[in-house]
Amino acid sequence: MLFPPACVHCKAPNVWLCQNCKSGIFFITSIVCPRCGTPASSPACTQCSTNRLHYIDGIRSAAVFEDNPMRSAVHHLKYQGRKVLASSLAEMLAETYRYYNLNADVIIPVPLHRTRLKERGYNQSTLLAKKLGRLVGLPVDTTTLYRTRDTGQQMALKAQQRRHNVAGAFACRGHLSGLKFLLVDDVCTTGSTLDACAMSLKMNGADAVWGLTLAKAT
Question: What's the domain count of the chain?
Fold first, then answer.
C-alpha cells in the first residue's frame, strides 16, 4: 500500500509493465542470423564475421534491447529488485521459444558467480528460467553449470575483450551425454557468455546447446 506498482517504463499506476509499453517493445520477427540471432537483411552477418561463435548451436532473442520498454524492464528486473517482472517477461520468452520451434530437454539459466549472487540476492536468469520452464513444460537445472570466477560487468567491453573475459569462466558437474540444453539469459550482446557456457556443456557431453534471451543488443 505504501509503494503501489507503477510501470517501470512510463510510470502508469497499478501495474509493473503496462499494456501500452508491452505494445511498444520491438519484438524480433524479421529474418535473423542462424547462429547469433542478430536481425539480418542479408546472409552475411556482420557480427559473426568479427566475433565468431564456436560452440553454441544458435541464439534467439525475443526483442531488441535499445530504445524501447524492454530495456527498462530488464534494468528493473536485474538491478532494481523488481522480481515480479519475471512472470510477464518469461511469457515473452515462451512465445519466442515456440516461434522458432526450439527443442530442448533441459533449461539452464546462465549462472552468476557466488560473490555476485550474494551481492544481488538473486539471479535474474534463474527467475526467468523457472517461469519459462513452467510455461513450456521443461525441467530447469540450476546446479550443473556454474561460474568458476567472477567476470565482472561486460557492458563496457568490446567483443574481443568480452570473449577473453569469459573464457574458461564456466564449468559443469556430471556427464550430459545426449541431452539438448536451452541456456536462458536476460540480454545477448555478442553471445560470448552463451558461447562460453555452451563450450563447457558440450565438453561434458551435451548433444546440442541453444541460447534464448529476452533481448538482443546491437
Answer: 1
